[in-house]
Each structure stands twice: as structure tokens, then as C-alpha cells.
């Protein structure tokens, strides 16, 4: 066993200085991290137009369920940048009505991305997008179209959505495109 870290030289399990199994400690840390991601603490105070509101998420990720693996990667990249995304897979509580959670979040969050992948805009994504377009008019919520890897060369975006400046990630989720997305979310150019 190596000194001080409680792990064996091969990286396996061991016992730390307090007599706690490093496997149990690691599982506990993973659980605590997952809980923080699923239920982040209140985060930002948004000033959009003349309204001021507090929300615990920085951005809502509207997406087609068929694009979920790519959206998961994007959500993780945002977390690494200290941006807290509202991602259904992480935020919807099992056994509770999800439509009510969507409505509440859409009415309170200050920014949304509309993620367009090779599957196009899905039926629920379309409803979310239209709700955010209404929120843009009502309280100046930012709406950011994002073209995901696999998107057609010339995607046909809905008319009102096409009026917003979009971010091109068709070549992959890269630093420059994440920088632009963070800029759109925070209003601060990295």
C-alpha cells in the first residue's frame, strides 16, 4: 500500500487513515457528486430586461430524445465550465409529473439552448422551443440554437428560431464552440 492515500500500488482498494474502505469512500463521493448534479444549489441571479429572478440552473437543454448521447456529452462539458444545465435526464424526479416540472423550469430559467442534431427537432423539443420563444418575447430569455454533430449541412430551422444567432458544433463539441455557448449563456465572452 502506498503511504497516505489508502490505495494499493496497483490502484485497488485499501483502508484510509480513518479505517474507512476507499471503495466505500469512492462510492459515497460518486453518490454525493451525482446528488449535486441532480439538485444543484441556487446559482445565479439573472437580470433579463427589467425583471430579476433567481434560478438554480443556468441553461435549459431543449433536445430530441434521439440525440440524448450527444446532449449528455454537451451537458457534461458545460458542468466542467461551471455552467449548470437543466437536463431532463438529471433533473426530472422519478414518479413525479414531468410536464409540470418543464412548465415551472421554463417559466423561471433565464436561458435555453435548442439543440438540433441529425434527428431534427422532436415533438416535445418543438413545444419547449415555442415556449421559450414566448418567454423571449415576454421577459427577454436568451434562446440559443445549437447545431450538433451529424446535423445537415443546411438545416431547416423553424422561422422564428432561425432569427437567433446559432452555434455550430457540427464538427464536434470543441473548446471554441463551448466558449461561444458559455458566452451566450452568461453574456461574458471567455
Short description:
This protein has helices at residues 22-38, 68-80, 88-91, 98-108, 123-139, 175-186; strands spanning 44-48, 51-55, 59-62, 85-86, 111-116, 142-147, 167-168. By secondary structure, it is of the alpha/beta class.
Descriptive notes:
With 190 residues, the protein is α/β, with parallel strands linked by helices. It has one domain: Toll/interleukin-1 receptor homology (TIR) domain (Rossmann fold, 3-Layer(aba) Sandwich), CATH 3.40.50.10140. It has helices spanning 22-38, 68-80, 88-91, 98-108, 123-139, 175-186; strands spanning 44-48, 51-55, 59-62, 85-86, 111-116, 142-147, 167-168. The longest helix has 17 residues, at 22-38. The model is unreliable at 1-16 and 20-54 (pLDDT under 50).
What order do the helices and strands come in, and which of them pair?
Layout: H1 22-38, E1 44-48, E2 51-55, E3 59-62, H2 68-80, E4 85-86, H3 88-91, H4 98-108, E5 111-116, H5 123-139, E6 142-147, E7 167-168, H6 175-186
Parallel strand pairs: 3-4, 3-5, 5-6, 6-7
Antiparallel strand pairs: 1-2
Amino acid at each position: 500500500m502506498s503511504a497516505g492515500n489508502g490505495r494499493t500500488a496497483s490502484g485497488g482498494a485499501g483502508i484510509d487513515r480513518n479505517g474507512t474502505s476507499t471503495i466505500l469512500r469512492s462510492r459515497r463521493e460518486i453518490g454525493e457528486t451525482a446528488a449535486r448534479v441532480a439538485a444543484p444549489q441556487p446559482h445565479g441571479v439573472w437580470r433579463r430586461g427589467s425583471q430579476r429572478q433567481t434560478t438554480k440552473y443556468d441553461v435549459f437543454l431543449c433536445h430530441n430524445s434521439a440525440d440524448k448521447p450527444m446532449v449528455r456529452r454537451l451537458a457534461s462539458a458545460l458542468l466542467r465550465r461551471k455552467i449548470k444545465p437543466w437536463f431532463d435526464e438529471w433533473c426530472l424526479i422519478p414518479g413525479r409529473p414531468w410536464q409540470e416540472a418543464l412548465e415551472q423550469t421554463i417559466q423561471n430559467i433565464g436561458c435555453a439552448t435548442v439543440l438540433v442534431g441529425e434527428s431534427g427537432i422532436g415533438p416535445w423539443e418543438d413545444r419547449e422551443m415555442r415556449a421559450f420563444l414566448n418567454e423571449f418575447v415576454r421577459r427577454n430569455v436568451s434562446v440559443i440554437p445549437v447545431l450538433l454533430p451529424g446535423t445537415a449541412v443546411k438545416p431547416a430551422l423553424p422561422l422564428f428560431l432561425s432569427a437567433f444567432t446559432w452555434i455550430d458544433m457540427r464538427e464536434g463539441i470543441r473548446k471554441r464552440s463551448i466558449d461561444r455557448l458559455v458566452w451566450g449563456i452568461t453574456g461574458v465572452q471567455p
